[in-house]
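User: Here's a structure from my thesis project, written as structure tokens. My advisor, Dr. K., wants to see whether a designed sequence matches the one we expressed. Can you design one independently, without my sequence as a hint?
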């Protein structure tokens, strides 16, 4: 039988402990003290048989795990329909992707099976877009709940479009040219440290994420300029591909699309005037020297200097002289 009485802090663990050793029958006083009246009546009515297995006297309490019932985005009661189709975040993303009509149809479905069936009966392209949208809504909701961070709807929609494009391109590719190319490693015997690098080509042999490091550097430079209150900025890079990516929309749907969107958004929102220019590598030596100085820091350590290192002073002076002679 299953009792309704919670165990609480009772020390009684097995049925045998409820038996009076002198009478080999139930200890009525103990049973009445431990269990609710209705449970005690049922227990005392049970016959006691010697030689039976000694069972535990309590069923384990179902403690479970408390789950928040409110949506972390809009604080409404949350279920599957609200999360993916009715929350304001979900509505905005579906609309940004041109899928409002499909969202309304799905929101009126009563069963999850019906929503899956609607998806499976859609075209291959729409099926991929809707599935990817659901995944991004779920990921964004978790990011808001765990870290309190939220991305713009435009960035989420662009992420969905880029991912869908990559999936379709991968599905139509027929051959794989290579997985990894031009792997290199370097080691410094004195410090026993080292580094490595590799070029990863795509289906057509073009290098994936080429220029990503340069773009990340530009992003950090922009953020530093914002922090000091600069109103105008000139970005200089020795990578022509990065210059083209920032000045045009040619790379907006590439794997660098999200990073480019962030760079362009920061430039447009925080500066009165901005430029991005290509310069030869020798004109960028000051930045390279600072990067070399930064490589001497331990991981997670920030090196801050009021004055530039002497080597950088000389490089900047030489660059100014070179510019004045041109």
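Assistant: Designed independently from the structure alone:
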């Amino acid at each position: 039988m299953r009792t309704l009485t919670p165990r609480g802090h009772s020390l009684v663990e097995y049925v045998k402990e409820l038996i009076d050793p002198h009478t080999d029958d139930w200890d009525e006083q103990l049973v009445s003290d431990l269990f609710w009246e209705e449970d005690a009546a049922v227990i005392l009515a049970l016959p006691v048989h010697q030689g039976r297995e000694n069972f535990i006297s309590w069923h384990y309490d179902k403690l479970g795990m408390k789950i928040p019932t409110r949506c972390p985005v809009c604080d409404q009661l949350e279920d599957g329909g609200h999360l993916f189709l009715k929350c304001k975040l979900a509505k905005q993303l579906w609309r940004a992707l041109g899928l409002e009509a499909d969202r309304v149809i799905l929101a009126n479905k009563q069963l999850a099976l019906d929503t899956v069936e609607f998806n499976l009966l859609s075209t291959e392209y729409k099926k991929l877009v809707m599935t990817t949208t659901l995944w991004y809504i779920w990921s964004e909701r978790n990011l808001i709940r765990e870290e309190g961070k939220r991305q713009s709807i435009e960035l989420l929609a662009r992420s969905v479009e880029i991912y869908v494009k990559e999936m379709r391109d991968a599905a139509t590719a027929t051959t794989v040219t290579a997985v990894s190319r031009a792997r290199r490693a370097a080691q410094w015997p004195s410090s026993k440290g080292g580094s490595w690098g590799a070029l990863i080509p795509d289906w057509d042999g073009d290098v994936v994420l080429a220029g990503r490091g340069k773009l990340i550097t530009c992003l950090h430079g922009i953020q530093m300029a914002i922090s000091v209150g600069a109103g105008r900025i000139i970005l200089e890079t020795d990578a022509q591909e990065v210059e083209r990516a920032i000045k045009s929309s040619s790379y907006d749907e590439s794997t660098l699309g999200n990073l480019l969107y962030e760079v362009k958004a920061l430039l447009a929102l925080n500066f009165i005037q901005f430029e991005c220019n290509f310069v030869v590598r020798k004109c960028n030596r000051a930045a390279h020297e600072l990067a070399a100085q930064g490589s001497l820091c331990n991981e997670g350590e920030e090196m801050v200097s009021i004055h530039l290192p002497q080597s950088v002073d000389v490089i900047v002076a030489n660059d100014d002289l070179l510019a004045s002679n041109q």
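When you compare it with your expressed construct, this may help: The beta strands are 19-20, 25-26, 181-188, 193-199, 232-237, 273-278.
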